[in-house]
Amino acid sequence: MILGAALCFALMNFFVNAAGDLPVMQKVFFRNLVAAFIAAVCLCFEKEKFRIHDKSCLLWLFLRAAVGFLGVVLNFYAIDHLNSISDASILNKLSPFFAILFSVFLLGEKPRALELLFVFVAFGGAVLVASPTFSMDVLPALAGIGGGACAGFAYTCVRVLGCKGERSNMTVFFFSAFSTLAALPFFIANYAPMSAMQLSFLLLSGVAAAGGQFFITAAYRFAPAKEISVFDYAQVPFAALLGFFFLHQIPKPLSLAGYAVIIAAAVARWAYGLLRDRRERKGNAETSSPASPASDPAPSPPPDASPPPPAQKDDEKQSNRR
User: I need a labelling partner for 288 at 20 to 30 A (CA). Which of 48, 129, 199, 227 fits?
Assistant: First the structure.
């Protein structure tokens, strides 16, 4: 599921960039309109349909939708203005590291020192990708980093909703419908005429986004992020290949170095998490293992608890019959 999400989001970035010079909100509108429609159709076939699981989920649905909408806007701006779609993809993939930070405040989790080190290393890789200068050229990179931060917050909200029992389809629909309505006024005010090809690309971006949303929501609901998040970085090579073959985009050397740093930090964090869990399970198994029979012999039953001999049983049966 996580690899499917990576491919879908890479395709979404490709279609958004291929749509050409259109207002960002116009792209955001079509991206979420298609996703909302697909999610609504899926909900119509479910027993609970559009009913929210619990009132306590409503706040988290709004938080996930509002912050996720802002993240999409920032990500689309970065896609349109950065050197390549792979740059935008890797900056957006800072989301798992931001999720570590947000989980401290939203879930009360306490990351270890080594996990925080991985976060700082990943941010160092983001600096290489952004290649910051004291000019307005750095704004698209900052937008990409901001989109990653919003995505990290949104995925933390998805984890909370999953723990509360909210359905994946409802989470996707709420986010997509909210984003469509939020983008509608900007879409109307700044509408730009489109060709049939541009409209097709925008609709395809919505289909890819819907697929990515379903995949990512299901993945983070049914598996811990520490076990699967590293595979989401497959989006970067997917995006790089699409950009190279179809958009003739070649990442800068500093960007490639940043990719390597961020992905290495993600792989190291993933491996560290699995190793730590294995050690904890091994320690728990050793402490809960039963004692051997030689060290704790079973007590012998008391003499009066032994069953009577067969002859005694027959005498008792005959006296009862009499």
Answer: 227
